Amino acid sequence: MGKNLIQQRRGKGSPTFRALSKKYLGRICHIKNTTDDVEGRIIDIVKCPGHYGPVAMVKYDNNEEVLMIAPEGVRVGDSVAAGKNTGMKPGNTAELKEIPEGTLIYNIESMPGDGGKFCRTSGTFGRVSAKFNDRILVLLPSKKERAFIPTCRANIGVIAGSGRKEKPFYKAGKKYYARKARNKYYPSVSATSMNAVDHPFGGSSSARHKMPLQSSKHDPPGRKAGNLSPRGGKRKKR
């Protein structure tokens, strides 16, 4: 008798495959009140398990405290601002329509007020490429241009921690816990390398697969191992 595949066990929602979100510091977002120019100060720079870049704790003059992804070149005690007339200082928050072309930005909002969805990992940034009355074009790290609403906000600068990938993982256990903190599966094992009880392609009794490579499109997700069947590109008979 077999057992559930790994994708079936993860989809069940057990605590084994759940991210350790209770250790997260909180939600990364922009300041809520940006009708006027507000000054703030970085009170601490910390490490959050749920984010690749360092996190800065900012307290503004209106007594609002937010968690912001720290850019390169800032330190504890530096001042940041949010609003329309803030300047292009790293860490400042401004709307895209107020940012000049060619400026490097990060933590860009997809819709006004959502707190930021794009360019949030360490060492990444976007670039304002063109400005129009109804949209702002931003060049993303994937080398694709995306149009944003002019009132969407973003932070100025480049996210710190660009050399994170240069440091290797010397132990498999370190990599396991680093991936587990963000609910990522590690290690990823090939189906043919598994035992026969773990996967339809597992076992070492023969070189060929025990199950057909192409599964039916009517199979449930657990049975869709290998190539999926075509959608049916045959011409309809008239």
Q: Mind explaining what this structure looks like?
A:
With 238 residues, the chain is mainly β. It folds into 2 domains: 21-79 and 87-164, SH3 type barrels (Roll); 166-228, Ribosomal protein L2, domain 3, CATH 4.10.950.10. Helix content is 7%, strand content 22%. The chain has 2 helices and 12 strands. The strands form 3 sheets. It has a 6-stranded antiparallel beta sheet, with no helix packed on it. Strands 3-2-1-4 form a 4-stranded antiparallel beta sheet, with no helix packed on it. A hairpin with an 8-residue loop joins strand 1 (38-46) and strand 2. The relative contact order is 0.14.
Topology of helices and strands:
Blueprint: H1 6-12, E1 38-46, E2 55-60, E3 65-69, E4 79-82, E5 93-95, E6 104-106, E7 126-131, E8 136-139, E9 145-148, E10 153-156, H2 172-180, E11 214-215, E12 227-228
The termini sit apart by 47 Å
Rounded average pLDDT? 86
Strand content: 15-25%
- Write down the Rg: 24 Å
Number of domains: 2
Q: Element order, helices and strands?
A: HEEEEEEEEEEHEE
CATH class of the largest domain: Mainly Beta
Largest β-sheet summary: 6 strands, antiparallel
Strand arrangement in the largest pleated sheet: 5-10-6-7-8-9
Question: What's the helix count?
Answer: 2
Précis, in short:
This protein has helices at 6-12, 172-180; strands at 38-46, 55-60, 65-69, 79-82, 93-95, 104-106, 126-131, 136-139, 145-148, 153-156, 214-215, 227-228. With 238 residues, it is mainly β.
